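Newbie here. two chains, one complex. Structure please?
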Amino acid sequence: MRQGHPNDWSGKSRGGVAGYLVFVFFIRKLGLRAAYVLLAFVALYFIPFSPSTTRAVWFYSRKILGKSRLSSVIFLYTNYFNLGVALIDKTAASSGLYDNFTFQFDEPRDVSDILAGNSGALIIGAHFGNWEVGAPYFGKYGKKMNVVMIDAEYRNIKSLLEKQNKLSAFSVIPVSEDSIDHVFMIKDAISRGEYVAMQGDRLTQKGKSYESHFMGRRASFPLGPFVLASRTEAPVIFYFAIREGFKRYKFVFRLFRPEESVRRRGGEVNVLNAYIKELESAVRTAPEQWYNFYKFWL
Amino acid sequence: MIDQALINKINSVLAEEFEVDVEKIVPEAPLMQTLDLDSLDLVDMVVLIEHNFGFTVVAKDFVGIKTFNDFYHFINNRLNETGAPK
């Protein structure tokens, strides 16, 4: 176990408000395909002008996926392009175009029962695929969705929504590393029978981490989400949304039921190990949709 | 005046949960440093209080708690307010 590291994610994601609004305009006025064409050029820009991200993707391609230099150049572009597609698709889905998408569900019966039941649930995703494209899907169960977000990321999203005069489909629980208010907000939301979603694969500067093998190499995972998952009475669901084609996604849900022995100090490692297993299985099906753009592996 | 039995119970559950020597837990000692707690450990503190003392904790409860003595008073006051058994 260790504290955060200077290479850990700073809490801010790349991408300006103006650029985002240009894409919103394209999606609404010209359609998804036109937005993808614009993206084909924008993705090129990010390769030289986002050097730390480019380094992280290059490392992932060369060292984790074992691709050659030439394949890695192609992969680099594909990875940026796919991220852009994910952002365009989630914007389209949340702008009333949700019905234009096709979704396939890998959802065991017990997960459906929990989502439809009265209890709250803790949903842990990853910076992989496009989890937000599924946010409207959770709405069908009529429960409020709360998304746990680093404070800086939250301020960025709030600013975007304000510029569009738009309300978010979910509530945000902002996490500040100097406060524990979010712990109580999560606890309260679950006790009200709501969903709480968070990402389990991004380490912040001050956060505690745990090193484990992921995709064949040691990586640092944050412990915070798994401490909460192991101590809460609520069911824990791992959720990933994988893009399978044009306007086509597959949602993967896996239920983790913490036993009593997991609900105490140290139990978080059991939840984390189960999460890593499911995440790796999902990432291996679509490695080009991994978007954890910082020095994740050791 | 706080019942010594309650203080002993608090010390005992803290020592067991956070794996510290019970002798280090004295009223004037700083709670966070003595138990080596960070913000994540406070999740365990919340669970520990709710399981052992039977009342619900809210964020503002932790404001102003610096020493074990502050913590004893917080637990004692909340038990008195809620009427939960000590």
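Moderator note: Chain A has one domain: 17-289. The two ends of chain A are 13 Å apart (CA to CA). Thread marked as resolved.
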